[in-house]
Design brief:
The structure holds 2 protein chains of 2 kinds. By secondary structure, chain A is of the alpha/beta class. Chain A is built from 6 helices and 5 strands; from the N terminus they run E-H-E-H-E-H-H-E-H-E-H. Chain A has a 5-stranded parallel β-sheet with strand order 2-1-3-4-5, with helices on both faces. The relative contact order of chain A is 0.19. In chain B, 43% of the residues lie in helices and 25% in strands. Classes of the chains: A alpha/beta, B alpha+beta.
Chain lengths: 135, 474
């Protein structure tokens, strides 16, 4: 099985570092890109699609972020899916958030592109386990 | 046999007077003596008019003649208020029943007389209670016609009582329900018992000007000889509805606050715990540089947590902080704030200055204003524009005819226009995470401003932001 590429979208840069370092030694992951909010992430993906590159296989998406939050990202991402159906077909979005709010969970589930909803685990080991099962 | 009738006549608890065909008192019992205060010897063979008040005495003989022409048992003075007069001249309300008695000597009339002073007093008491009730009171008859209202009803519904009495109760019912209402009245009259109206529904009355009045209505039947009357007690619950809405809003705000606070406290803790695991691993492997970097990250995360907790505390206190007014010393405030924020000012390379053009001293709850200005200045520093030649935050004051005005202006990043309506909301952040505040600062500002009866506005563009506080003099 090919190693997967990841895009981590989170405004908490220390947490992004935490994810990167935790997954550093996971063989199934080939590369990790980062974006600090929904807007940045959308621009990155749009750019990649425009350049004919394939975007990340797995997008880890936070909810509460400035500029564009997780749901605003999903709105924009849905629009991109319309346009680049074939390319984005293999990409899975995973919510990785500290929100335990049931509304957030339901709202995320309503987006077809969202594969799963993970609340940020308390330990890095749990985080590695959770991501490993996804890739 | 006559003896028995005499006995019954004499001992009847009701005052009885037998009048002969000439209109003279023929017989009276002891109850009649007591009622009118005469001894029977004083009245027998005297005209019955002795017992009739002066103002009606002239008509009385004619009334007697009319009765004699058409004699049958009936009440006297139907529809009129009747009075009798006692020996001392004192008038009192009474009710009289008349029965004709035919004899060989002509038509005698038996009058049974009841003193209704107590009943009239009770009615007056009822009317007084009606009038004095703190809430609206109205009474309708079994057909839904308004027969009595008090002043509160007039005030609530903006009608004069003369426009209400005799009208259908439906005129106070919202247009949309008017057509159904007579059915409710009908079914209530058929099965009357005290209860609240419209349980489980929101009830509204309709005022004269067509506006809606939220009400609570209790209804109670009064069974009278004229049929069932319904007394409604109407409470204007405008204030309660408003308070409930405010409470609901507070509750939702609190819920959001608890949710976001726990989120904002939990996330950095999780991160700190992860970083500690890395440090542990790095120490085992001798990777001390990365361990040291991560320790720095933990230090700055804990500082942020401390700030967040500080803001939460300030916010909790802001709600009920009580403080006497004292003069706000702007120069001293500026130098204190510069000192307090010295580290941030230096790091961001921002010039913080003041131009104070007010003439009168400002008397205010100084702690509140201090927190407001400190937050605004600190935001100006936090969100300074690093790519400009120079950065500033300037606080100015001036007075106009109505307000003491304070402005805090910077040439920082500005607030994205799309978020302008959320500026004073809870947990709103508008910039990248490296500058993350608690998201509570401007929310706290707004809270203090409200408590100071002041107003705050802002203008923001990519060139900078200006907050303008207006404090009214009164």
């Amino acid at each position: 099985m090919d190693a997967k590429s990841l895009l981590v979208v989170d405004d908490d840069e220390v947490y992004v570092y935490l994810v990167q370092r935790s997954l550093r030694n996971v063989d199934a992951i080939s590369s990790i890109e980062t974006a600090t909010n929904g807007d940045e992430a959308l621009k990155l993906i749009e750019h990649q699609l425009g350049e004919g590159q394939s975007p990340a296989d797995l997008i880890l998406l936070d909810i509460n972020m400035p500029v564009k939050d997780g749901f605003e990202f999903l709105d924009g991402y849905n629009a991109l899916c319309e346009q680049y159906r074939d390319t984005l077909d293999s990409t899975v979005v995973v919510m990785l958030t500290s929100s335990h709010n049931e509304n957030d969970r339901a709202r995320a589930a309503a987006f077809g592109v969202v594969g799963s909803y993970i609340t940020k685990p308390d330990s890095t080991k749990e985080l590695v386990d959770a991501i490993s099962t996804l890739v | 046999m006559n003896d028995i009738f005499e006995e019954i006549f004499e001992n009847s608890p009701v005052a009885l007077i037998l009048v002969n065909p000439d209109g003279m008192v023929h017989l009276m019992n002891s109850a009649a003596e007591q009622l009118f205060g005469y001894d029977r010897s004083e009245l027998i063979n005297r005209p019955i008019e002795v017992l009739v008040p002066r103002k009606t005495v002239g008509h009385h003989p004619k009334l007697v003649q009319d009765y004699v022409k058409n004699p049958k048992p009936r009440l006297m003075g139907r529809g009129r208020e009747l009075f009798g007069i006692k020996k001392g001249g004192q008038e009192f309300p009474l009710e009289v029943g008349l029965s004709p008695i035919k004899t060989e000597d002509g038509l005698f009339v038996m009058s049974s007389i009841i003193d209704i002073t107590d009943r009239i007093r009770a009615e007056e008491k009822f009317r007084d209670a009606f009038a004095a009730a703190p809430n609206g009171m109205l009474m309708v008859d079994s057909k839904g016609m308004i027969v009595l209202v008090n002043r509160q009803i007039e005030e609530m519904f903006l009608y004069h009582r003369k426009d209400l009495i005799g009208q259908q109760i439906e005129m106070l019912v919202p247009d949309a329900l008017r057509a159904h209402h007579p059915k409710f009245v009908e079914s209530y009259v058929a099965n009357p018992e005290p209860r609240a109206m419209g349980v489980g529904r929101e009830l509204y009355g309709q005022r004269k000007d067509k506006s809606m009045l939220p009400v609570e209505v209790g209804i109670r039947p009064v069974v009278t000889e004229d049929g069932v009357l319904v007394i409604s007690s109407v409470v204007d619950i405008t204030e309660r509805v408003k308070t409930q809405a405010e409470l609901q809003e507070k509750h939702e705000e609190l819920e959001q606050f608890a949710y976001r606070t726990s989120h904002d406290l939990r996330s950095p803790l999780q991160t700190i715990s992860g970083l500690c695991e890395f440090i542990r691993d790095d120490i085992k492997e001798g990777q001390l540089d990365e361990a040291s970097e991560n320790a720095e990250k933990i230090i700055s995360l804990t500082a942020k947590l401390r700030d967040l907790i500080g803001d939460i505390l300030a916010l909790t206190k802001a709600e009920k902080m009580e403080e006497a007014l004292s003069e706000f010393d702007f120069d001293r405030f500026l130098s204190d704030t510069r000192e307090k924020l010295a580290h941030d000012i230096e790091e961001a390379d921002v010039v913080v200055s003041g131009v104070f053009r007010h003439e009168d001293p400002l008397l205010i709850q100084t702690t509140r204003l201090q927190q407001v200005l400190e937050n605004l200045i600190s935001n100006g520093i936090k969100y300074a524009h690093s790519e400009r030649d120079s950065r500033f935050v300037v606080i100015t004051t001036h007075q106009n005819e109505t307000h003491f005005c304070i402005s805090v202006r910077d040439n920082g990043l500005g607030i994205p226009e799309s978020r302008h309506d959320q500026v004073f909301g809870m947990f709103q952040r508008f910039h990248k995470s490296e500058k993350l505040g608690s998201g509570l600062g401007l929310y706290l500002v707004k809270k203090h401003i409200t408590k100071l009866n002041a107003s705050i506005d802002f203008e923001s563009s990519p060139d900078g932001t200006e907050f303008l506080i207006k404090l009214p003099y009164s």
